[in-house]
Write a structure and sequence with these properties.
alpha+beta, flat, 51% helix, 13% strand
Amino acid sequence: MPLKTGYNWQYCSLGGVTRVRISSGEDIAHLGELDRKLWTVLSCPVKGLEFDSRTLQLLDVDGDNKIRIDEVVEAAQWITGVLANSDDLLLGSDTLRLEQLGSSESAVALRNHCVKILEELERPAEAISMKDLSDYRTLLDKRFADEAAAAVVVDMRPYGDDTASIVDAVTALRDKVADFYMRCHLVRFDADCRDAVDVSVERIAAIAAGDVAKQAADIATYPLARPAADGLLHLRNINPAWTDQMAVIADKALHAEGDDAVMTSDQWNEIVGKVDAYTTNLTQQADGHAAQMSESQKEATERYAAVEKLLHIYRDFYTLLKNYVFFRDFYQKDSDVKAIFQNGRLFIDQRCCELCMRVDNIDAHAAMASASGMYLLYCTCTSRVKNETINIVAVLTDGDVDNLSVGKNAVYYDRSGLGWDAVVTKIIDNPISIRQAFWSPYRKFWNWCTDKINKSAAEKEDKAFNDLTAKAETTTESVKAGAEGEKAEAPKKVPFDIAKFAGIFAAIGMAVGYIASAATGLTKSIGDNPWNLLILVAGIIIVISGPSMFIAWTKLRKRNLGPMLNANGWAVNAVVLVNVRFGATLTSIAQYPKLVLDDPFVDKKMPKWKKWTIAICSILAAAAITLQILYWCNVI
């Protein structure tokens, strides 16, 4: 059925919903013409999917961590424009033959990039693969590292191997030495100011009372040496905070020996000049080499990026479409094919849940996912191998739920096969099957009865214990009072008042009469027509299990995966039904062969005739009570 756009779209039914089918390269090329209301998904997140993360980054053009329809359409138009036959996208291969590229300008440029890469790798220029791309990345990294190492200047070092240490010493002493020679100039200008420009005795005395070794930072602020009019810096007699740096200058730059070695301002200026010339030349050459190197790096990086985009989209784009446009992978019969949002499998209570998704916040996800109508198990999973903890939600679509509760342990296997220790932390209760809904009222009634019985027994036990302790205390007090000569007054017996209980006896008699009358009528009806018993039993079953089964049927036929995906950041545009037939494939139950095994500790099973007798008696009792209630209510 063609749309108004003129393109003849093909359709399919998946999960009971009609969807647009993408089955050819021509379909992919025309994605821009597809009405957005017909897309199953409007956007999906970049993170948390079982999909190549680099491909998703390349598709996320605006960098908002969402893949939207516009970005999918843009990628579709680009990749179909560079391929000679766009049907090749359906292959999903990680190897691209160069002859598969078309004749457009973009395709020719990409072919040239691929040829250049293969030539540098010394491989035949016939096909390029993901492995070739990875090897080329390794080659580029090594080449860039070698070029950076070649930028180091060695031949122009003024002091040979000592140049680096001298540069460090000059950098540290530059300001202190300049300060020293300026102080010497002031002393030469006016000898009376020597004490003013020298460190004062009071300042030294202020730190002498404590641990002087701990005052190195304060001492470093003192003048480098005592200034003099001759302007000579005595290299062995300087501020102790700067002796190491000055020793480098004296030994490696001046080669001065002896305790009386000195340095003039001219000698210092010569050293500084050499160091400055060296560092300036080093910077200029490094900048020039970096400019030259960055040009080659830029060209190689652009070549790598272009081919990387080509190979990733060529390999993964159709897989994305199958999980974006029409959800084919989710409804695939092949158990080895999973949707990109299915992150693993949960094994719990002799079952395997195939539909598992990772979630960030359990409470926030459950608030929206509860509208899916599915039975959900939220688990916190821990891996000792990865030293990591994650949260998942598993969908249960078959079996019973009697043994499932918060705190139950399970094992979760991610898509790579790594096992995680799982603990159930939250349960969203919804019907699983019609069969489970049939027995649900009886289980609930049985649980209610056992709870009431247990509660009543516990209350009676507490009452008996309290009465026993109270009597013991009363007896002890009575004995004590008798020992002191006190006589306790005997309690007065209350005479039995038959009139008080006459109403009770009358009510009981009427109830017994009604029950007997109803039982007699029921027995007579069954005696006249034995089929009435079957009708009666069927009617009781319908009254008890019918509402539960009807509610379960309405919910099961409307189970929708959409709210779960929306809670994970998807924008689902169509219903993603999980009906009973399809849901049965998402949860597998353990199947044992029929064997006769000898187990000395097995409980002896009740004979079938006893089970049937108990069942029939229970149904008849329930029927009698139901009829009595209807009689009292004037219904019959």
